Amino acid sequence: MTAPSRGSPGHDRGDGALIRPASTVLALRPARDAFEVLMVRRAGASVFMGGAFVFPGGAIDDADRGEAAAAAVDGHDPTERAWHAAALRELAEEAGVLVTDPPAPADLVARCVALTGDDLYCAVAAAGLRFAAGRLAYLSNWITPPGPPRRFDTRFYVAAVPAGTAACADGHEVTEVAWVSPADAIGRAAAGEWHVPFPTLRHVELLARFDTVDGVLAHARAQAEVPRVAPRVVPAAGGHRVLMPGEPGYEAAGP
Fold it and tell me: What are the DSSP calls for 168-191, one per residue?
C-alpha cells in the first residue's frame, strides 16, 4: 500500500501495532486508449511490500507538517495539508513527477529527483512554484488489518497529469516505474508477472470501470462520503483470506 517514512507519528488501535497516517497517489495521464495509471515497483530489499507494484506513496513525515511544506503546498485547510503534502512529496521523490502550479520546468524536475523532505519543498518554493493540492481528489481511506507489525491509515488520492508525463524511479525505494492501463495492470497481476497487493489491485479494478481521467476524478469528487475500508484477514486453506466489509464472515472475524 505505502512505504514508511521517518518521523511519522501514529496511533494504536488495540493490537499493539502503531498505525501511521499515510498518503498514496493514483497519478493518471491521458493515453490513446483511455488513460494510464503510474505504478512503481518497491525495492526488493524493502521491509514493507518489497518487490510489489503499488502506487507512489508513503507515511506522513515530519517535513510534511513543517514550515517548508506550508510554504510549498497550496490549500486552505491546514488540517489536511500534511496528507496532501505527503502525497505530492512521495510522488515527486519516488517517481520524479511534480504536480505544481505553474508546471515545473524540466531542469527543476531533473534536480528534484535527488531531493527529499524539506530540501524538496524548499526547491519548489524557491522556484516560485507550489505543489497543487487542489488537483488531488480524495478517493478512499484504507486501514491495514491487525497482524502486520506495520499498519497504515492510508488516504488514496487521484491526480491528473498531462499526456506524455514522464516518470523515473528514484533507485532507492523504487526500482521501476510503469505507466499502464488498468486492464494491463490487472492482466499482469493475474498472470503472475507482477505482485500487486490486495488494496492496490482493488483500486486498479475500480479504475478499470472508467473510460477517462475526468470520469475517475468526477467519481471521487461526487462521493458524499469517502469510503473508509478496514479489511480483515482470516485463516483459509493454504494461507489466509482477506474479507471486505459486507462479505460473509466479516463481522465474525472481529475488529
Answer: ---SSSEEEEEEE-HHHHHHHHHT
